[in-house]
Amino acid sequence: MSTPSNLTPQILIDYARVFPWTTPALGVSGYSSEPAVSFTDDICKKILAKSNPWKWNEKKAPVFYTQPYQQDYPTSIAQGVMGWLSAATMVDINNVTSQPPIQPPINCVARLQPTNIVGRPTKVCWIINSMANTGTWPGPNVAYVSPLVSAGGGPSSNPATAITDTNGNIQVVTTYGVTGGSQPSWPAALATPGTTTNDGSVVWTLIDPNGVAFRLDALATNNSNVWQLKVNYQLKPPDITSLKQTISPIPNDLSYLVKQGFLAYCYKQVDNAKFQVEFAQWLEDIQSAMEASDREYQEFGFAPTSSISGPGGGAAEGYNYAGWPGWTNDGT
To answer: DSSP labels for 259-303?
Structure first.
């Protein structure tokens, strides 16, 4: 596992001042935050741009399971950490006859429109929780069945597992069971995310409206196959705002690129022609470092030209992962 770099804008200033030509850009001494903080912020955002899907910057999202007629799945992931989706697959989680389980690929796209098309999902995007389509409380004595056969459940006719309560909060089922004889007393509007509400044997958990939800391009139906969705995402670049802030998650072994970029930005204040040359070389070196760290062939399996399970799922036209050739921002 890569060790995050301990470089800060102040350390970069001290490093750059070794070179006398940087004086017009940084000054002779002192602790002025600009332009060093802005330089460092730009450098981090370019190293962590969508064209650079670094393995050390990739995280697993919590898995989720398809539910009948539900397109959107709110999560507890903070919008501030989500950069872009990098890879996804799904597992026929209740299939015990196929070993290993069948794992069709899923295309990661920038956006998907609401749909009532049913079928096997082939695409996933992220949206803000507040934009997710949710249901309402289903009523008294309604069963919510676990999607997992191993947990005593399986394919079901569950109502929406993500609802908006009467106070405007987004609630998701986190414990399956049977709802109570009357609607529960929901938390006040804008209550703390993570607050739970007991509803008979069902437990609801309040979700941050500014968090991240996943949207699929096709809907499951009552008692249809349950898919476990496994999504990976790249972390959003940090916002560098002070001289003492580190450049984490960029690792120590790429500190040389940060220093190189910082010197290139110093040229921007001193010699624009030289800046153009050094900046272009720096971008080229970022790509070389990206290639060196990810030498494996970028291939995740096959992409069918039509839905394996029949109509309704949409065609998987290729691997539209952000940052790889062929990625589009229109959900195609």
So the answer is: HHHHHHHHHHHH-HHHHHHHHHHHHHHHHHHHHHH--S----S--
Share the mean pLDDT of the chain. Answer: 87
C-alpha dihedral sign at 171, 175, 180, 186: negative
Q: Is residue 329's pLDDT more than 90?
A: no
pTM of the model: 0.82
Nearest to 212 by CA among 241, 234, 183, 187: 234
pLDDT value of residue 305: 40
The residue to which tokens 């394919």 are assigned: 155
Give 47's DSSP letter. Answer: H
Token output for 257: 């690129």
3-state secondary structure of 12: helix
Per-residue buried b or exposed e for 6-38, using 16+ beta carbons within 10 Å of the residue's own CB: ebbbbbbbebbbeeeebeebbeeeeeebebbbe
Return phi, psi of residue 275, to 5°: -60, -45
Beta strand pairing call for 211-216 and 58-60:
unpaired
- Nearest alpha carbon to residue 237 among 54, 91, 31: 54
Contact 7, 245 (CB under 8 A): no
